[in-house]
Amino acid sequence: MKFASLLNSSTSLSSLYADARAGNVLSAYMFVCEDSALLDEAVALFIAYRIAQNGQFTEKVADRVMRNGYVDVRLFPEGDKVKVDDVDRLVADVYYTPVELDKKFYIINNAHTANDASQNKLLKTLEEAPSSACIILKCEKTTNILPTIKSRCQRVELTPYSYEQLKEILLRYYQENDQFNFVLSVSGGFPGIAISAIEDKSKYAMFQIVRETLLYMKTSKDLLHYSAKWLAQKTRVKELLDNVERFMTDLVFLDAKEGSLIRLKSNVKDLLTLKSMGYTGEVALKILPRIAESKQKLEFNASVIAVIDSALYSILEVKAKCRK
Question: What is the CATH number of domain 4-157?
Fold first, then answer.
């Protein structure tokens, strides 16, 4: 486990883990965090505190939980998204007596992907779960979770670390460089997201493509060149659009003199240059919904090249109109 010491020192988790050590576990929990790696370890530690004897070897038990090494710790769904069939399997199993432990744990990964039909199927079980069962929903977000489901689970929200805290954590394992500073800026304060971005150098490359596009795509004559650059990354266009959003959001904060809210702290010089080029807060605010629209088109399987051309053209168009 990479984050055990961080999780154990978390004030938002201390009372929950204390309850688990004391054997006081409810029938349903909803763990919420956009950092899936941190979320996995937080849930594994919670279960480990409940089942580890006398609190010993907790991390080893948590590792076993993460390896799916307990008969009575069941993982759902079978695929990436929660479907009705997954809930049916859980419901059919929940009333059976535990085999290995004194309590059965049902972990529903990606619970935020469950549609209304799946959630409604689960609702009665959450209301009437046997004392031998604990159902844990893991969500990156809760916007798609029905209010009736939310009301029947104890919510456990993992909060991000500050820029300074995260930097201190990462410097224990990594050297500070341009990629390191980029990772700090885009991780949202979550160590799992940061480490993933450090270990996958292509994420920084995607950021650099967007940085270059915004700094050097000045007229429609440049559009074809940068459209080709984006098209070469056609499987990662959403990631490119995410990076445009990061720049635009920080330009809004820069214009509003809200420096503490800027996430691309190592790129403030670039932000100032972009502002001088006409990317004011007003322009950025008008570009943001255009980028959101482009991302939505991608979700509905629109032509990738059409999405790219539309997004890049809209950036130039908005900037030009606001100058007039």
Answer: 3.40.50.300
